[in-house]
Amino acid sequence: MDHVTERKWDNAVRGYDLMNGYGPEWRWAPWKRQLFSAMEGKVLFVAVGTGQDIQFFPPGCEITAIDISDRMLARARPKAEQYDGRLELRHRDVHDLDYPDATFDQVFTSCTFCSVPDPVNGLRALRRVLEPGGTIGMFEHTGSRFFPFGMMLDLMTPLTRRLGPELNRDTPANVRQAGFVDVRVEPVYLDVVKVIHAVNPD
Amino acid sequence: MERRLYFLCGDVVSNAGVGALVGLAVASCVGETWPVVLAMVLGMLIGEVVALPAAVALSVPFGAMEVMLPVMLTGMTSGMLLGMLAAMRAMSSGSAAALGATTGLVVLATTYGLNAYVRARPHPGATS
Q: Fewest beta carbons less than 10 Å away: which of A6, A194, B59, B103?
């Protein structure tokens, strides 16, 4: 367990729902609902946080939702108990998953790999627990190739990194580097907010 | 393009409001006799100082990146423009605010256009 990252997110829990629970969730709701509507089989949801995304999960699924912060999970628990399906919350570090190989049929993330300290190795860990041919669906924000947005995100990253996410990562490239194939990217807002689909090769 | 009225109004209010605030702040700091380049650089800095906390606050009701990026760009461009104009001629508070707000709306429209362009075209490396 990466205790530095754990503490960072334990500390972030206080303002988390205020900063992310209203405007951003409402604005991104259509895309998240569409992405998560594809959930089926055994699903791993990475970085469930305070459980804001649970409202978008389709009913009747079998979902294991993990997070590195116990305090975040405590906030997520009431929402998880109301979910119409099987939803287990687990305290786990994505770099250090103790699930057997090929445990899950699908993996989903939501604004996760802006914050995972070693994104490529984190994604490799997800590949290991994902069955061959299984899919990963990600709702993520990244850096931008457009001036001046890319520059602004680069300049803000040293500050935001201390509080939570990095704003200038190239997550689609990290997904490819981790060995996923058939990587598809759908822009949601500019080239910054996006949905990424990829497949774990056989 | 965003079609939900709540977010459309939020985007307009955010960018016009921040543009107007930046216009007022820059016009009150920059004098007519200043060198234009210095006034533009100072205007840009003032714009970012005003826009950053405003963007964080406005992201709570209206969305994260969709608010933060255009509002930061509004701060930068309206600060530079108002800095340049304030160094060239005297400006009333009203005209500084109106020009800043107009700049914010132009920035918002440009960002909407860029977003439509990006979403209509295949993303670089969309498949591999």
A: A6
Angstroms from B32 CA to nearest CA on chain A: 29
pLDDT of residue A14: 87
Cβ of A185 and B66 within 8 Å?
Answer: no
Residue B124 has pLDDT above 60, yes or no: no
| B59/chain A closest Cα distance in angstroms | 6
Question: Cα separation of A124 and B99, whole Å?
Answer: 51
Tell me whether B114 touches chain A (CB under 8 Å): yes
B38 touches chain A (CB under 8 A): no
Residues A92-129: tens digit of each pLDDT: 999 999 999 999 999 999 999 999 999 999 999 999 99
What pLDDT is attached to residue B128?
A: 41
CA distances from B125 to A38, A151, B42, B112 (A): 23, 21, 39, 23
> B116: how many CB neighbours lie within 10 A of its CB?
11
- 3-state SS, residue A200: coil
pLDDT digits (tens, 9 = 90+) for B9-67: 999 999 999 999 999 999 999 988 999 999 999 999 999 999 999 999 999 999 999 99
Range of the domain at A48: 3-199
Burial class (CB in 10 A: 0-12, 13-18, 19+), A150: middle
Cα–Cα dist A7/A118, whole Å: 17
CB nearest to A23's CB, from B59, B69, B124: B59
Domain total in chain A: 1
Contact B118, B65 (CB under 8 A): no
Closest Cα in chain B, distance from residue A23 (Å): 4
Q: Is A199 on the interface with B (CB under 8 A)?
A: no
d(CA A152, CA B75): 12
Please give the ipTM for the structure prediction: 0.89
